[in-house]
Amino acid sequence: MKAPTRTTVASAITAVGVLTIVSQAYVGLNGPQVWRLSDAYSQILGMLGQRGLEPLSTFTGGAVMYDFPLYQAIVAATSMATASDPLVTARFVNAALWVVLAWATYTIAESTDHGAGLWAVTLISASPLLTHFYSVPLPDNLSLSLAVAGAALAIQRKWWAATASMAAATMIKSPIPFVIL
Predict the structure, then answer these.
(1) pTM, to two decimals
(2) What is the CA radius of gyration of the chain?
(3) Which residue of 13, 101, 157, 178 is most buried, as measured by CB atoms within 10 A?
């Protein structure tokens, strides 16, 4: 019997991370930054037209914008398109972002040393910090996945895609929204 390839094993380990994230689909907001999660979630609900909420408002009624709301818009649009609960949708969007992060981490590590990608994917998949934050509605997940993907694309010399990915990651976490509000 032929031994599995590193890519196959890395894919299986990535799947464990995806299962960890998706298995928490019906768990409410939790963790050390629940206020931050509730702000992102209220913005998602506002974008879905939840009565009493505006797209950039919090549950307390104030307008707040810690990030450019691209993540919130993606989750809201996906939730609307699939007619699913936005909190569950956030977990599935995050699972897709996890796959992007795992691919990019694997690509970067493999570029430094053959076989390092497997160890890198194992490390991030075993990280309770990363798997926890990828299981909650947090715009940082999109920003991190895009930034690491941008670096991986740059290593592959896909300059336009790398630039677009890094620009989007930077825009999401830009301080400019603070000025707008």
Answers:
(1) 0.85
(2) 17
(3) 101
Select the more confidently predicted residue: 120 or 64. Answer: 120
Q: What's the confidence (pLDDT) of residue 78?
A: 97
More confident residue, 113 or 58: 113
57 SS3 class: strand
Burial class (CB in 10 A: 0-12, 13-18, 19+), 160: exposed
Tokens at residue 133, please? 């934050």
What whole-number distance in Å separates Cα of residue 173 and Cα of residue 44? Answer: 17
The dihedral formed by the CA atoms of 67, 167, 154 and 7, expressed in degrees to the nearest 10: 40
DSSP 113: S
Burial 3-33 (b: 16+ CB within 10 A, else e): eeebeeebbebbeebbebbeebbeeebeeee
DSSP label at residue 2: P
